[in-house]
Amino acid sequence: MSCKLSAIVAVSDDWGIGYEGDMIVSNKADMRRFVELTTGHTVIMGRRTLDSFPGGRPLKNRRNIVLTRDASFEREGVEVVHSVDEALDAIADEDEAWVIGGEEVYRQLLPFCTVAEVTRTHCLRLADTHFPNLDEDDAWEVVSESEPALIGADEEDHGIEYRFVTYRRPAATDEKEDAEPASDGQQATESPKRPQIRTMILYRSKHHGNTKKVVDALAKAFPGEIDTLDVATVDKKNPKVDLSPYHLIGIASGIYMGEIDKDLARVMQASVGTGDFVFSLLTYGGASKWYGKDIDGICRATHANFLAGHGCPGFDTWGPYKLMGGMNKGRPNDEDIADMIAWYDNLVQGYGDPLINEYEKRRRRAAWEAEHPDPTMMDKLKNTGRHLFGRKKKQ
Ligand SMILES: NC(=O)c1ccc[n+]([C@@H]2O[C@H](COP(=O)([O-])OP(=O)(O)OC[C@H]3O[C@@H](n4cnc5c(N)ncnc54)[C@H](OP(=O)(O)O)[C@@H]3O)[C@@H](O)[C@H]2O)c1
Ligand SMILES: Cc1cc2nc3c(=O)[nH]c(=O)nc-3n(C[C@H](O)[C@H](O)[C@H](O)COP(=O)(O)O)c2cc1C
Question: How far apart are CA 77 and CA 66, in angstroms?
């Protein structure tokens, strides 16, 4: 391919790029740079990124190529393509083109890019989409880096530090045939360097087994990594589950009257503890993607860390939907499941090694504390007395 293909992206510290269809940080300087670099060229994006632009309109003064699997999709000012091959064919005669997101499209087109212009924004934000961590990929190297600057005082995210970093992939694939990009999310994210973590998914799937379907598929996709526990099997009088062997805790549920299953919430509350790392997997009948605030709330109450959540539509025959023969027929489908697997894989690739380190620290601290029990109140008073009156402890 003679066209120089580059990716351009703004990432947070854990390479998060978006949440619920929006960017996670707004930075006018970054926007200006984006416009400067891409104007006059071709940009390639996923349909969801197009939808995230004001009015869902394409970018001005650029040729906009949009990937979608929807054969009937049309939008003014947009060239629609339906596969990566079609996108690459469309730019074959161009000198320069830019991959502008989001996650699904970056992952598939990065193997054809030789440069990635990455705005590294120094913050951590809740994200449901990520860019691959190029610092952990030996194929990519940093060739230039701007001085750090701060987001402007007049902006919502003012004061956050950012840098423009240019990565290059010296041995980039020239011919698209060589790169063999994966056709779906699951393959696209597989990596030999997968962190060796252990995950427990606590779940409840009451209605149509939608949640169980995704949980089982996930466990099957990563054999030996994921244990699952249906909380219906947990003793109601003793709802505490030992989560100490696990680096990562998944909470998976359908949404019932806007909330996760109540038994699951009880087990979670009793079992999750300080410093645990938690993610959520939800299936729901409605249109909204943001459910599971109760999971975040329980994490806050138990001092656990809520990392991120993923949701997908699930077949629903509750209430009025019954009369219509059900909502979301066939969901979660293969694509939903592949998306969920890719999302989880990405979470593990991004957080896995830090989680393992953190877990090791906690294990060592617990062992030390077991050997050095907390002094009794009387010991504490005696120590304070010794300290005040300068007496030495009797040997
Ligand atoms: N921080 C940044 O620099 C940055 C940049 C861009 C985007 N973002 C964020 O990223 C998020 C969106 O990312 P995303 O991963 O959800 O979506 P996306 O990559 O923008 O779009 C995904 C969609 O593209 C289509 N698609 C993907 N691969 C395809 C293929 N091989 N063949 C045909 N169509 C294909 C599908 O559209 P259909 O569903 O229509 O079939 C798919 O749903 C948003 O939050 C956005 O704000 C951040
Ligand atoms: C009693 C009940 C209440 C529900 N309430 C909601 C709701 O508030 N919002 C929503 O999006 N879906 C709602 N649903 C749909 C379920 O969340 C959806 O079907 C989900 O995929 C069920 O998962 P499951 O098959 O694992 O139980 C409800 C379903 C039931 C049975």
Answer: 10
